[in-house]
Specification:
de novo design (two linked rop proteins)
């Protein structure tokens, strides 16, 4: 004669496993959507910065007519940001635009009237504010992604993640040029 409580053990085990899978699946969905949302925040800030570029280029054009190559580089880099389809493409385009803007602001140093132009100063300030927002968005994205990946890769969650094919995402990282610049102390001139 079979003892009655042991008959229910397999049923209880199946229910517990099913509940765990459901809970884990829903949590993975929540993390994945947070990663997508934070990635979208970065795209919004990159687009905002890209929208400021035409005004900046037009302002500089009037003063720096013979700096055509610098202006073309900024315009091309802006186009690449708007065309980016993946996080990696967006990162590469962002690095290209950052480099082009650094060159543009270096060129602007040669034009005292431009540096004093109110429109140029306002655009420069807006770009700095946007850069700060981009950096904050990147940090938030990387933090959200780290939480998602830690949960997705932990055992036994990894089993559920693999069954339902939850994707991996790329971190936003500095390119080699930005890493070198970030590691060097700033040069101070008087």
């Amino acid at each position: 004669m079979i003892n009655q409580p042991f008959i229910y053990l397999p049923i209880i085990a199946i229910v517990v496993i099913a509940l765990y899978v459901i809970f884990t699946y829903n949590r993975l969905i929540r993390y994945r959507e947070q990663v997508k949302e934070s990635s979208s925040d970065i795209e919004v800030q990159l687009k905002r910065r890209a929208d400021l570029i035409p005004n900046l280029v037009e302002t500089v054009k009037g003063y720096a007519i013979h700096e055509r190559e610098v202006l073309e580089n900024v315009t091309n880099a802006r186009s690449k940001i708007l065309e980016a389809k993946t996080v990696q493409e967006g990162l590469e385009a962002d690095n290209m635009l950052t480099s082009a803007l650094k060159t543009l602001f270096a060129v602007a140093e040669n034009y005292p009237d431009l540096k004093a132009n109110q429109n140029f100063l306002q655009l420069q300030e807006e770009l700095v504010n946007t850069e700060d927002k981009i950096q904050a968005s990147r940090r938030f994205y990387n933090t959200t992604l780290r939480e998602y990946e830690a949960f997705r890769q932990s055992f036994p969650t990894s089993i559920v993640a693999n069954i339902f094919k939850f994707p991996t995402f790329d971190y936003f990282e500095l390119d080699e040029g930005e890493k070198e610049t970030a590691q060097k102390p700033p040069e101070v001139k008087f």
